[in-house]
Write a structure and sequence with these properties.
This protein is α+β, with helices and mostly antiparallel strands. It is built from 25 helices and 25 strands. Helix 2 packs across helix 12.
Length: about 850
């Protein structure tokens, strides 16, 4: 009725156009009122829901949304912070991935914690640990043990496989019947070895590794029962091992049983590695005590105990992980982990400085928040949420860098590195990276929390309003962070400098050969099935060598049982006639090698006194020997005095005359010092109980300018096969390859420390530059006043430079004190340099001081160019 009356009234006064306009306005009003009602209803519902929500989660989501919006507005700050954290977290995660795969991850065997390596100590001959097992000790321990579930022996060898497309040399693992069972690794196909397989006179058997089964037999499921010819002897294939199983320190192609004859054993043959599984509840101390109890029983069961009695044998039972990884690699990895941890601390210090600068610019904001009711905890939560969020973003970037770093590491290290397939980004690594990211965020987030979470409202609002210069007390936190950055960087650079000095010192050492890139080495073994007679075996090697010597471009060639640094060794105690031992004394072990004439000339090792071994010595089995300078100097003041002296390897064998002294060699690596080596002719008589002793596997050392050319190796292979077509060539590599492989751990450590030190130096310089530059920007008005009152440009520059150099000086002083303490732990990695080397420390201080001077000079120059009028 109201609408009708109003319509009539409007039509009379304004016509139908007025009525239409009225209806439009009325409709719009109705829609607006409806929308307002709906909006009010939604707001009432939202308030009701918010009251029922967890207030902590609501506050957290609000802080997080604000943080993301804030980072979006500060893109440069966010990018620099994430990149800095990514470098630190990525480097730390990369190294942890390697440590996790190599050292922390359990071995891929059943109940790996109960597996132990069983070794001995022999202080009587200077062997304090890691003296091998003998078959005599193995059988005694297996019969008499109270601590072990079972014990096994193993050893790596090489064997020639014939009867396939071409003869080849493969790595095999000799095991006793219980070794594979101890590891708890069942075969993929067939069965494992039994006591019958490991008994002399039984059918010869073999088990294939998964990779060899796939590569050579195309994964034939019917392989069980077929025959494989190893060193001329047919063996029945009884099993195939599962994939991706590293057997201790190696990855053999074939497993074969030892087949020891107990009636032929004696105590002195310590040439094998032992493994055992502890009984439940047995500790390492109890196991060592049990081995010590059984050692006297060995001499009762087997002959030869009088030979080892002066050794004073003792037990050395330790976790199997020590045998798989080794002590040196573990030390190197932990040193590198500590290094990248320092880099992460420097990165966090840099980010903390950035956060302090950012928080300084937000004082007015925090003061306003506090003024309108925000508590100190809410302000602190905002800072911590921002820092942890940045830490997680940096962790995500670090994971990407870590993946790249791990792949690069796997590609450059030797494939023989222990547990290389276990190195991967996995849940443990992800958890570590997440923890590092969160802890890093909390670490650098605490600095603005402690400094700015409880602002002085009056001062903050007043200073923020007038842009006042900051007081000296506000610089203390940033200055402390810069000092810590410089100190940590100095520690890393000192460590890297010591490694560089060690590496340079090693490069100056003559390793026992020259021009290694021109020397090719390869191994050829002549099995007894091919040539049964020992003298004939030596003759076959000689004929092959003479064929190789006649090849075009071959300067010289020789034979040896092993070459310097190739990892092959044979050791025994040596008696010196002129220096008799007491009844309770045992001779120290010496490295033995068997060589042909021309070996020293081919290697480039100088003859210091006497003569070389000749072919006449070999053909007549003359009792002669050549020794290294270390052996001669140990007994005689002048190496020439050793000529004509006599030695022997057993009190019951004949004497051998020293006819020559050659330069030192470094078989165990330059970092371990020269190795005492004795060189015998390739054929000797009355040695180790053999009427005629010769090595069936020999290394051919070939010096030629054609090394590396594809045709040379084919010509050598053709000459070898023209003598015997069943002889494969193995371990083909140059002396340079052998040397580089031996130096790889040192080179790898040097590279990692160098990269870490470079990053630390960069971050330290950026930290100094950033703080000084920020201080200059905040003191622009003060500098303008100083210059308006008559200060010169050099005075301003000197003031700013002095500030930077004071920070750098304080950091270097602190760093020197820390470095002196920490670098002592690197002693095992150093060579020819003292952990407190003044040259290294002096060079680092001068270099770091120059970098700090440059980092301070740039903002000092900018400060000196301030226009007083513009500044004021």
């Amino acid at each position: 009725e109201l609408l009708t009356a109003r319509t009539q009234h409007v039509r009379e006064r304004r016509g139908w156009m007025g009525v239409l306009r009225m209806w439009v306005f009325q409709t719009v009003d109705l829609i607006r009122s409806g929308l307002s009602e709906r909006r009010a209803e939604r707001q009432r519902s939202a308030r009701s829901r918010s009251k029922s929500r967890d207030p902590i989660m609501t506050t957290l989501s609000q802080h997080l949304r604000f943080t993301l919006r804030s980072f979006g507005r500060s893109r440069m700050f966010t990018a620099v912070t994430v990149l800095t954290l990514g470098l630190g977290i990525g480097a730390t995660t990369s190294v942890f991935t390697v440590i996790n795969g190599v050292l922390l991850k359990p071995l891929p065997y059943e109940d790996p914690e109960s597996l132990v390596g069983v070794w001995h100590s022999a202080p009587g001959i200077g062997w304090n640990d890691y003296l091998n097992q003998a078959p005599a000790t193995y059988f005694t321990y297996r019969d008499e043990t109270q601590a072990f579930v079972d014990i096994g022996l193993w050893d790596n060898r090489q064997a020639s496989v014939t009867g396939l497309e071409e003869p080849e040399r493969v790595e095999i693992m000799l095991v006793t019947d219980g070794t594979l069972t101890l590891l708890g690794v069942p075969p993929l196909l067939g069965r494992t070895f039994t006591a019958e397989d490991d008994s002399p006179g039984s059918t010869r058997t073999a088990i294939l590794s998964h990779s060899y089964w796939q590569n050579r037999f195309a994964g034939d499921a019917n392989i069980i029962g077929r025959t494989l010819t190893l060193d001329g002897l047919a063996r029945e294939i009884i099993g195939v091992m599962p994939p991706d199983i590293w057997m201790l320190r190696s990855k053999p192609a074939v497993f074969v049983p030892f087949r020891f004859d107990r009636s032929q054993l004696w105590v002195g043959d310590f040439s094998y590695q032992g493994i055992a599984r502890l009984k439940p509840g047995v500790t390492l101390e109890q196991a060592n005590a049990d081995v010590a109890r059984m050692l006297p029983l060995v001499n009762d069961k087997f002959p030869g105990g009088e030979f080892t009695e002066p050794w004073r044998l003792g037990p050395d039972v330790h976790p199997l992980m020590n045998d798989v990884v080794g002590d040196h690699l573990g030390k190197v990895l932990w040193v590198i982990m500590g290094t990248v941890g320092i880099v992460l601390l420097i990165a966090c210090a840099n980010v903390a400085n950035l956060f302090l600068v950012r928080a300084e610019g937000r004082q007015r904001e925090m003061a306003i928040r506090t003024a309108i009711g925000a508590s100190r905890s809410q302000v602190a939560h905002q800072f911590l949420i921002e820092s942890v969020t940045l830490g997680i973003m940096g962790g995500a970037a670090g994971l990407g860098l870590a993946y790249v770093g791990v792949q690069a590491f796997i590609s450059i290290v030797p494939q023989e590195m222990p547990r290389l397939p276990d190195i991967a980004i996995e849940p443990t690594v992800l958890l570590f990276a997440t923890a590092v990211a969160v802890l890093s965020g909390l670490f650098f987030g605490l600095f603005p929390v402690l400094r700015y979470s409880s602002p002085n409202l009056v001062t903050s609002l007043k200073e923020g309003g007038r842009g006042a210069d900051e007081g000296r007390e506000r610089n203390r936190a940033r200055n402390a962070l810069v000092v810590s950055q410089v100190a940590l960087a100095l520690v890393l650079i000192v460590g890297s400098g010591l490694m560089i000095r060690s590496f340079v010192a090693m490069q100056k050492v003559y390793p026992g050969f020259e021009r290694p890139e021109q020397v090719l080495t390869l191994r050829i073994a002549i099995p007894s099935a091919e040539v049964a007679d020992r003298e004939a075996t030596a003759g076959a090697h000689e004929q092959i060598l003479r064929r190789i010597q006649e090849l075009p471009g071959v300067t010289s060639a020789a034979l040896s049982s092993s070459v310097t640094m190739d990892g092959w060794d044979s050791n025994t105690g040596i008696y010196v006639e002129a220096f008799p031992l007491g009844e309770d004394e045992a001779p120290p072990p010496r490295r033995l090698k068997w060589i042909s004439p021309g070996y020293f000339g081919t290697m480039g090792n100088p003859l210091l006194a006497g003569r070389d071994i000749t072919w006449n010595d070999i053909h007549t089995k003359a009792p002669v020997v050549v020794v290294t300078e270390t052996f001669a100097s140990e007994y005689w003041s002048d190496p020439r005095e050793a000529i004509g002296q006599r030695i022997r390897e057993n009190p019951n064998r004949q004497w051998y005359e020293i006819v020559g002294v050659v330069g030192n060699v470094y078989d165990n690596g330059i970092e371990r010092g020269p190795t005492t080596v004795l060189y015998w002719p390739t054929v000797v008589d009355d040695f180790w109980g053999f009427d005629v002793f010769t090595r069936r596997m020999m290394v051919y050392v070939i010096r030629s300018s054609r090394v590396g050319a594809p045709g040379l190796l084919e010509e050598i292979r053709r000459e070898v096969w023209s003598e015997n077509s069943n002889l494969p060539l193995a371990n083909i590599q140059t002396l340079e390859d052998i040397y580089d492989l031996r130096m790889l751990p040192i080179s790898f450590t040097l590279v990692m420390l160098g990269v870490a030190a470079s990053v630390a130096l960069l971050l330290g310089a950026v930290g100094i530059y950033g703080v000084i530059s920020y201080v200059v920007s905040r003191r622009t008005r003060e500098i303008g006043v100083r210059m308006a009152l008559g200060a010169k440009q050099r005075d301003v520059s000197r003031m700013v430079l002095g500030n930077g150099l004071v920070l750098a000086g304080a950091g270097m002083t602190l760093g020197l004190l820390v470095a002196v303490g920490l670098t002592r732990f690197m002693s095992a990695l150093l060579f020819g340099v003292n952990p407190v080397d003044p040259v290294t420390y002096g060079a680092v201080v001068i270099g770091l001081g120059a970098i700090a001077l440059l980092a301070s000079y740039l903002p000092a120059r900018r400060a000196a160019r301030v226009d007083p009028v513009g500044a004021l």
